[in-house]
Amino acid sequence: MSEPVPFAGVPRWVVAVAAVGALFVLLPLVAMLARVNWAEFFLLVTSESSMAALWLSLRTSIAATVLCIVFGIPMALVLARSHFVGQRLLRSLVLLPLVLPPVVGGIALLYTFGRRGLLGSTLEFLGIDIAFSTTAVIMAQTFVALPFLVLSLEGALRTVGTRYEAIGATLGARPTTVLRRITVPLVLPALISGAVLSFARALGEFGATLTFAGSLQGTTRTLPLEIYLQREVDPDAAVALSLLLIVVAVIVVGLAHQAGGAAPLRRSARA
Amino acid sequence: MTLTFSATVAERGFEVELRIETGETVAILGPNGAGKSTLLDIIAGLLRPDAGRADLDDTALFDLTDGRRHWAAPHTRGVSTLTQDADLFPHLSVLENVAFSARSKGARKAAAHEIAQHWLGEVDGAQFAARKPAELSGGQAQRVAIARALASDPKLLLLDEPLAALDVAVAPAIRRTLLRVLGDRTAIIVTHDILDALTLADRVVVLGHGHVIEQGATRETLDRPRTTFTAGLAALNLLTGTRTSGGMTTDSGMEIVSTVPTAAPLGSRVAATIRPTSVRVSFDQSTQPHPNQVTATILDLEPRGDIIRVRSDTISADLTPTAVADAQITTGMSVEFAFEPDAVTIHAADAGTERVESRRESPGPS
C-alpha cells in the first residue's frame, strides 16, 4: 500500500528538462569522486599545508559571517523599514557585489584599503597594514558575502511587517527592546539561512581574496587558493581537498538548516 | 485620564476633534474609510498628523500647532492597543506575551510573571500560560491579548474591532470579559457592531469621511439617529424632511403620517425613524390606499437570523423567510412598503444633517 499521491500537474517534458539540469549539477561531483585517490586521501588532506588552509578558511569564514551579521542586520532594517530619497539606488549599490566579478571586487578593495589606496595613507598613519594579511581575507569574504545576508533578511523583514513591532511599542517597549525581543526573533529563520549563505559564499571565496590578500600559506592562503595551487603540482591533492571543502560546506549548511527549521514561524491560529 | 484630541491629516481628508472624560468608554462608529483606524493610529503614535494636538491628562501626546513639533514616541504614551486579530507575539509563550510590557519596562522576570499571572486570571486565561499562541483558538488568543494590553497598565486603552474576527459563539463571552475589565477605564472602542456600542460604551462618536458627524450618549444617539449610517447601524429606517401637522414631508416630497407625540415645532427639520419589523410589503397596487405607503424597487434580500431584511434605497422591511418565499420576492421587483402612523417616531434633526453613505457590508479594514 502506497500513500495517495496528490495531483501535481507537472508536464512530463518539464520533468525531463529538470532531470537534465540536475544531472548537469551532479555529474561533475560524481566525476570528481571517481578521481579521488582513496588510498592516500587521509595523508593528502592532513598535510601541513592542507590543514593550515582548512583552518584559515574556517576561521576567516566564521569571522566574515559574524561581520555580515553585525553590519547586515542594521543594513537590512534600514532598507526594509525606512523611507528616504535614493533608497532604491542605495539598495542596488549595496547588492552590487552579488553581480560583480570577485576579481573586480578585490581590485576595488585594494584601491581602497591598500597601501596606495583611498584610505591607505590614513591607515598607514594609524599603523594599520591591511592588504595581504588575514584581515584582508576576512574583508574580501565579507565584501562578497554581505549582500546574501542583507537580501534574505530584508525580504523577511518586509514579509513579517510592522504590526508586531507596533504592538510592542504601544506596550511600552523602547525601539531597541522591540528589535531585540520581537523583530530579530521573528526573522530568526531568515537570519540563520542568510548567515549560512554568507558563510558558504565566504568559504568558497577565491578571486577577491587572491587579488586583495594574496596567497601566503597560513596567513592568506585559504582552501580554495590551496586547491588551485595544488592543481598545478599534485592533482590528487587538489581533488582530495575539493572533497574536503564540499564535506565541510555540506555539514555547516545541514547543521544550520536544522537550527533554522527548529523555530517555525506561525501566526496564531484563529478559531 | 482625560483625553483631548484634535488632528488633521490632509491626505486622508481627516479632521477630528474629540474629548474623552476620565473613566469613559467611547465607541467610534462609522463606515469603512471613515477615519476610525486613522484616529486610533494617531492617538497610539503610529501615524503623524499634519497638525493638531492631543493631551492625556497633563501630558502632551503630540503638539503640532503653530509650528511646534512635539511628538511623544509610542512607547512613552501609556496608550495600549487591542487589535481584532489578537496579534500575540508568535515566538513567545502566553505568559511571556502578557509579561512583555513589564519586562520591557525593566521589571525582573519573577515580578513580571506575577503581574502576567494576575491578568491572565482576570480574563479566565490562567490555564493557557504555558502555551504558544499557535495553540490557542481565536477566543482564547483574544483573552490573552486583553490581558496583555491591561498588564501594561495603560492610561488609555484603544480597542480596534476587538470582536470582529471572533466566532459568533465566542464573541459574547469575550464581550462580557471586556465589560468587566473596562469598568472605570478610559477606553476608545472602534466597532461595526451596534451590540458592542450598546453594551460597552457610555457614548458614541460617529465618523464619516474623516469628520465627526454625530455624537452623544449611546442609547439616545442610536434611538434618535440623524444620519442614515447611524440609523442603519441601529437597524432603523430613517427618513428626513420637514415637520407638518400630520407628521412630516420628506425631502423627496412624500407625506408621512405619525401619531407618536413629538416636540419638534412645525416647519422644522426632522428625522423619522421606523423599525423594519413594522414595515409590510405588498405587490398589489390596487389595495386600498394606506396613509404611509412607499413604492420602491427591491435592491437586496439580506438574511438576518430567522428574518430576511428586504431593502430598497429608501426603506427596509423585515419579513419571515416563508413570507418572502410565498410572495416570490426577488431583487429588482417594484413593491409597496407600508407602515402604520403609530410606528413612526419623529424627532428634531440638525439643519446640517448630512446624508452619509450607508454601507452595511461585513466589517473590513477601514
- Amount of beta strand of chain B: 25-35%
Counting DSSP E segments of at least 2 residues, the number of strands of chain B comes to: 21
Termini gap of chain B: 27 Å
Gyration radius over CA of chain B: 24 Å
Order of helices and strands of chain B: EEEHEEEEHHHEHEHEEHHEEEEEEEEHEE
Order of neighbouring strands in the sheet with most strands of chain B: 7-8-9-3-10-11
Largest sheet of chain A: none
Low-confidence stretches of chain B: 351-366
Overall pLDDT metric of chain A: 88
- What does the average pLDDT of chain B come to? 86
What class do helices, strands and sheet pairing of chain A give? mainly alpha
Q: Can you give keywords for this protein?
A:
heterodimer; A: 271 residues; mainly alpha; B: 366 residues; alpha+beta; 6-stranded mixed β-sheet; 5-stranded antiparallel β-sheet; 9 helices; globular; disordered C terminus
Short synopsis of the structure:
The complex is a heterodimer of chains A (271) and B (366). Chain A is mainly α and 271 residues long. Chain A has helices spanning 12-35, 41-45, 48-81, 87-94, 96-99, 102-113, 120-125, 134-160, 163-170, 175-186, 188-203, 207-213, 223-233, 235-261.
Care to describe what's here?
- The complex is a heterodimer of chains A (271) and B (366).
- In chain A, α8 packs antiparallel against α11 (188-203) and α11 (188-203) runs antiparallel to α14.
- Chain A contains 14 helices and no strands.
- Chain A has helices at residues 12-35, 41-45, 48-81, 87-94, 96-99, 102-113, 120-125, 134-160, 163-170, 175-186, 188-203, 207-213, 223-233, 235-261.
- By secondary structure, chain A is mainly α.
- By secondary structure, chain B is of the alpha+beta class.
- Chain B contains nine helices and 21 strands.
- Chain B has helices at residues 36-44, 94-104, 109-122, 138-151, 171-182, 194-200, 218-223, 228-233, 321-326; strands at residues 3-9, 14-20, 25-29, 51-56, 59-63, 70-71, 79-82, 156-160, 187-190, 203-208, 211-217, 237-243, 247-250, 255-257, 269-274, 280-282, 293-304, 307-312, 316-319, 334-338, 345-348.
- In chain B, strands 7-8-9-3-10-11 form a six-stranded mixed β-sheet, sandwiched between helices. In chain B, strands 2-1-4-5-6 form a five-stranded antiparallel β-sheet, with helices on one face.
- In chain B, α2 (94-104) packs across α3, α2 (94-104) packs parallel to α4 (138-151) and α3 crosses α4 (138-151).
- Classes of the chains: A mainly alpha (271), B alpha+beta (366).
- Chains A and B meet through α9 and α10 of A and β7, α2 and α4 of B.
